[in-house]
Fold this protein.
Amino acid sequence: MDDFRLLIDLHKHALRQGPGGDAETTLALDLCMLDKTEPLKIADIGCGTGASTLTLARQLNATITAVDFLREFLDVLENRATKADVSEKISTLQSSMENLPFDVEEYDMIWSEGAIYNIGFEKGINDWRRYLKPGGLMVASEITWTTGGRPSELQHYWDNEYPEIDVASSNISILEKCGYSPIGYFVLPEHCWTDNYYTPMQERFDDFLRRNGNTNEARAIVESETKEIKLYNKYKDYISYGMYVASKQPWS
Ligand code: SAM
């Protein structure tokens, strides 16, 4: 099995594929100051197995297009939606976030947790804007420096992994420059990384290795995830996901 298939196998059994939490999804939703009974059309881009999609579906009178380029994740999401009795609110769409088949001004809200980095924060914010109605809401979480300076080991790691990583003030400036009015920002707390993401992943390592014959490739995936977890634990004072909430300026 190639590395990509192995990564899918490790992550598709998880409730979420990145740091986050139901309470934090709800907090971001509350920052939007919506009437939750109002009918809304939402796209959840890079939805994975649907952690945020299900939370939104439970709380809103919405139709949600859950977008991911991996059918395996969308299949899990559909099963979870059926079990949670919200499947009538959700339709899945297998598509690249770089080439979305949406109409101009189709959506009231675009939601994207832990996924916009795949296209780049500025490009995603810019490209996806056209799909929002005037005054529509953009909610995205993005890996963010939480301090102005940081140790060189950490800087070096992220310069290689994702050079676009920046401080919140820069990301908020991007939102303003790209025709949005920022509404709110908060930092995901530590439990979103540990209890909700890393610990369940570590608990899946043994089964994952067994399923995949304990091959060198499978062990390399576990080593790489373990390295990321160690780095997070060492440097969590300097880095987190930021949750950004903004509305599309009606006149831009
Ligand atoms: N939002 C989910 C969550 O918080 O659990 C998933 C986050 S995971 C870190 C990123 C997701 O983006 C994955 O499900 C991955 O399949 C999806 N993804 C990556 N690149 C993509 C692309 N170019 N187009 C669509 N989806 C993509």
Observations:
- The chain has a mean pLDDT of 97.
- The CA atoms of residues 202 and 226 lie 8 Å apart.
